[in-house]
# Entry
Amino acid sequence: MDLEQATTLVRQTLMLTLIIAGPMLLIGLVVGVLISLLQTITQIQEQTLTFVPKIVAMVGAAIILGPWIGHQLLTYAAAMFASGELPMTVP
# Structure
């Protein structure tokens, strides 16, 4: 493996990581902003109010997106091991 192949492998792996983690992070961000707005409007300063909905939303997203994440990882791994070469695009 030369430097170009190693760089491509790292780049594609990081892109796949971002694609997989993106929806989960986006859901956490949206729920966090909505809870912050609710707290601002109602002037409730309860600390657990910010964490519990985010945790519930992230666990729900993990359950819903689990099959898709598994498919993405299996497709990438199968492409790497089957041909011995890196796939050109992240699925």
